[in-house]
């Protein structure tokens, strides 16, 4: 069941990261030159935090 949690969280993180990046770019007024790197950093931070929380709450 844990694999399902991680998979669903990964899908959610993808869309959340894209939304966050869009908001940052909208506020800034134009797109970043290295958009994929910034997207990677956002999703990496969110993934590390959320996957650690899942693992913490999943332990018996």
Keyword list:
mainly alpha; 85% helix; 60 residues; single chain
Characterize the structure shown.
By secondary structure, this protein is mainly alpha-helical. 85% of the residues lie in helices and 0% in strands. The protein is built from 2 helices and no strands. Helix 1 (2-28) runs antiparallel to helix 2 (35-58). The longest helix is centred in the N-terminal third of the chain and has 27 residues, at 2-28. It starts with a helix and ends with a helix.
Concise overview:
With about 60 residues, the protein is an all-alpha fold. The chain is built from two helices and no strands.
Which secondary structure elements does this structure contain, and how are they paired or packed?
Blueprint: H1 2-28, H2 35-58
Helix pairs in contact: 1-2
Beta-strand residue percentage: under 5%
Shape: elongated
Number of strands: 0
Give the helix/strand class.
Answer: mainly alpha
- Quaternary state reads single chain
Distance between the ends:
14 Å
Largest sheet: none
Number of helices: 2
**SSE pattern, N- to C-terminal:** HH
- Rg from Cα: 14 Å
Spans of at least 5 consecutive residues with low confidence:
none
Mean pLDDT: 90
Helical coverage, percent range? over 70%
